[in-house]
């Protein structure tokens, strides 16, 4: 079977992670314990997941003409991802997430930077790439009009559209119409159902709801179908959802059923949480099949 062609359109960030015992008060300086720079951004994370699982992945996005931009692009290349559609902008800085880990929780400031320079015109420019894809994977860390345009173009060409509605915001009806599969977590699901003014049953037909270790739920003939998760020792949940979405895109692009795709993606999400880091913890197809064969 040829490699499924996945186009990921979304964010590319550098995560700047500071760990300390506590957060500083306003005007206060304290000593931290550890600092890390980790490749991130939901778009880039999902691209890495799909590539490690056998997808032929093209990333569409923007970075700044700076150290972070070059490092993040090189990191995606090392994963075998086509980076020819990543624009480097001299007038924008690469997106970052400043993350403080303290007192058992995290605080995050995201500066989108170049991620917000992905425009509707960018989508038109790469229409040929989108049209040649088996699936397009989208998230909401780039401007909403761009997401809508990408979904519209993919839908027009009969390409499967998978939308991860995170960070959660109200989805325009047209975006819901263009999407084939929408993948909220439990909290995002509640918000989507609350915000949606149309027929809730019509929306549910498109949903795959992720529920962490419990697995996933989708809706068939008005009934919930539960696909169980896997019991693992959890080390770090960062990037688990992105791992799942990359996996789901690859399996659906291969023509697998929704239930089989969810089973596979649940295994990917389970393996991802057994290692530290978002992208560094993402499994290969070989590791996933080993877990599936043990179950």
Automatic annotation (TrEMBL):
Note accompanying the cofactor annotation: Requires a divalent cation, most likely magnesium in vivo, as an electrophilic catalyst to aid phosphoryl group transfer. It is the chelate of the metal and the nucleotide that is the actual substrate.
Known EC number: 2.7.1.15
Class of this enzyme: transferase
Domain (Carbohydrate kinase PfkB): residue spans on this chain: 4-284
Residues the record marks as active site: 242
Cofactor(s) the protein needs: Mg(2+)
Protein name: Ribokinase
Function description: Catalyzes the phosphorylation of ribose at O-5 in a reaction requiring ATP and magnesium. The resulting D-ribose-5-phosphate can then be used either for sythesis of nucleotides, histidine, and tryptophan, or as a component of the pentose phosphate pathway.
Pathway: Carbohydrate metabolism; D-ribose degradation; D-ribose 5-phosphate from beta-D-ribopyranose: step 2/2
Subunit structure of this chain's protein: Homodimer.
Keyword DNA-binding belongs to the record: no
Gene Ontology MF term list: ribokinase activity
UniProt source species: Scopulibacillus cellulosilyticus
Catalysed transformations (reactions): D-ribose + ATP = D-ribose 5-phosphate + ADP + H(+)
Description of activity control: Activated by a monovalent cation that binds near, but not in, the active site. The most likely occupant of the site in vivo is potassium. Ion binding induces a conformational change that may alter substrate affinity.
């Amino acid at each position: 079977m040829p490699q499924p062609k996945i186009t990921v359109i979304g964010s590319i960030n550098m995560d700047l992670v500071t760990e300390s015992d506590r957060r500083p008060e306003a005007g206060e300086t304290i000593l931290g314990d550890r600092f890390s720079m980790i490749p991130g951004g939901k778009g880039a994370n999902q691209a890495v997941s799909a590539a490690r699982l056998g997808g032929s992945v093209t990333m569409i996005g923007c970075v700044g003409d700076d150290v972070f931009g070059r490092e993040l692009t090189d990191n995606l290349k090392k994963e075998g991802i086509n980076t020819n559609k990543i624009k480097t902008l001299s007038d924008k800085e690469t997106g970052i997430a400043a993350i403080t880990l303290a007192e058992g929780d995290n605080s995050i400031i995201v500066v989108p930077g170049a991620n917000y320079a992905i425009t509707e015109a960018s989508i038109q420019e790469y229409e040929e790439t989108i049209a040649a894809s088996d699936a397009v994977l989208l998230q909401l860390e780039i401007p909403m009009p761009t997401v809508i345009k990408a979904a519209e173009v993919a839908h027009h060409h009969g390409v499967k559209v998978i939308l991860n509605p995170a960070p959660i915001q109200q989805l325009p009806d047209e975006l819901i119409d263009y999407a084939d599969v929408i993948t909220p977590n439990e909290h995002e699901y509640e918000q989507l159902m609350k915000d949606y003014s149309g027929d809730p049953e019509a929306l549910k037909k498109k949903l795959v709801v992720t529920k962490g270790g419990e697995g996933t739920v989708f809706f068939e003939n008005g009934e919930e179908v539960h696909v169980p998760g896997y019991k693992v020792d959890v080390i770090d949940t960062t990037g688990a959802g992105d791992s799942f979405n990359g996996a789901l895109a690859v399996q659906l692009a291969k023509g697998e059923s929704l239930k089989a795709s969810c089973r596979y993606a649940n295994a990917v999400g389970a393996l991802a949480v057994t290692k530290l880091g978002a992208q560094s913890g993402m499994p290969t197809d070989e590791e996933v099949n080993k877990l599936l064969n043990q179950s």
